[in-house]
């Protein structure tokens, strides 16, 4: 494949029928332009231009090459313009995976607003607590909450996500308040299985150590909203991200416990993307929307 810049130089010379006029347009010397055309002829093994002291004309082969090459360069320029237009006006399919409760609570409205703002983007949004495989399932972006364990994707932190051990005032009045992490095993635990194993909570202590705390589950669910409701009803103690419980804590419906023993900054909210995939303008704009919205919510 010949050098594209060299081909462009040849086209300019053929258009002007002059090395000097082409040189003035390109911003090169006449001799440099002549050398580039000569190299192109050497690569093709044919004479493209007939040169005289007064004029430059196309050979038969040069006329064929000029016609095809000019069209090819024009097509490339048009393709570049179309790509820029796509970047300016995002189009195409955008497939997104978002945890169900978080999506319903916080993102339904801004996603709908995004769809209204960019009507040519075909949104395919899956509110599900299933951890999808981005590479195999065709998702462009997913929202993940907590500590990321999988290094097979690229992640962008959208917001910190404090986490709380909490219970309702009625539960604590009936069963007492645990004084340390070890006492949690003597209480009824509500296990959100998306962030816990079957019989323990993985908790980060104040000094930054990860601790596996044994608990006795009275209810287990992959849906955080169910865990929250059971906690509000006084069924047991829950270990949940702030976006589930912050409002209830502020209203006095839930009480955070063991705050002096655990780090509340255990994890964050991330946008994750498959590795080795170009991020289209629609993905970048969607992630920016998520980031801006979560900053407004001060999560």
Descriptive keywords:
25% strand; 5-stranded mixed beta sheet; Arc Repressor Mutant, subunit A; 3 domains; single chain; D-Maltodextrin-Binding Protein, domain 2; alpha/beta; 299 residues; 10 helices; 14 strands
How would you describe the overall organization of this protein?
This protein has 299 residues and is of the alpha/beta class. It folds into three domains: 82 residues, Arc Repressor Mutant, subunit A (Orthogonal Bundle); 101 residues, Periplasmic binding protein-like II (D-Maltodextrin-Binding Protein, domain 2, 3-Layer(aba) Sandwich); 95 residues, Periplasmic binding protein-like II (D-Maltodextrin-Binding Protein, domain 2, 3-Layer(aba) Sandwich), CATH 3.40.190.10. It is 43% helix and 25% strand. It contains ten helices and 14 strands. The strands form four sheets. The chain has a five-stranded mixed sheet, covered by helices on one side. Strands 11-8-12-7-13 form a five-stranded mixed sheet. Strands 1-2 form a two-stranded antiparallel sheet. A hairpin with a 5-residue loop joins β9 and β10. The radius of gyration is 32 Å and the shape is rod-shaped. 30% of the residues are buried. The model has no long low-confidence stretch (mean pLDDT 87).
């Amino acid at each position: 494949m010949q050098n594209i810049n060299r081909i462009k130089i040849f086209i300019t010379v053929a258009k002007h029928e002059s090395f000097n006029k082409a040189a003035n347009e390109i911003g090169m010397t006449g001799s440099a332009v002549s050398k580039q055309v000569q190299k192109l002829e050497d690569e093709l093994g044919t004479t493209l231009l007939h040169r005289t002291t007064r004029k430059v004309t196309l050979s038969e082969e040069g006329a064929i090459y000029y016609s095809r090459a000019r069209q090819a360069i024009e097509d490339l320029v048009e393709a570049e313009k179309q790509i820029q237009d796509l970047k300016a006006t995002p189009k195409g399919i955008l497939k997104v995976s978002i945890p169900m409760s978080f999506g319903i609570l916080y993102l339904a409205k801004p996603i709908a607003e995004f769809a209204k703002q960019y009507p040519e983007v075909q949104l395919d949004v899956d509110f599900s607590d299933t951890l999808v495989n981005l590479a195999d399932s065709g998702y462009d972006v997913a929202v993940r909450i907590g500590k990321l364990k999988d290094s097979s994707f690229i992640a962008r932190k959208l917001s910190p996500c404090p986490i709380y051990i909490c219970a309702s005032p009625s539960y604590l009045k009936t069963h007492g308040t645990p004084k340390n992490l070890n006492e949690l095993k003597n209480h009824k635990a509500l296990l959100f299985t998306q962030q816990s194993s079957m019989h323990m909570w993985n908790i980060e202590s104040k000094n930054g150590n990860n601790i596996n705390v044994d608990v006795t589950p009275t209810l287990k669910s992959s849906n955080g909203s169910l865990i929250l409701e059971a906690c509000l009803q006084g069924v047991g103690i829950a270990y949940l991200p702030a976006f589930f419980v912050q409002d209830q804590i502020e209203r006095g419906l839930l009480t955070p416990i063991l705050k002096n023993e655990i780090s509340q900054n255990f994890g964050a909210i991330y946008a994750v993307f498959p590795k080795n995939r170009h991020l289209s303008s629609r993905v970048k704009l969607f992630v920016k929307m998520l980031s801006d919205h979560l900053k407004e919510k001060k999560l």
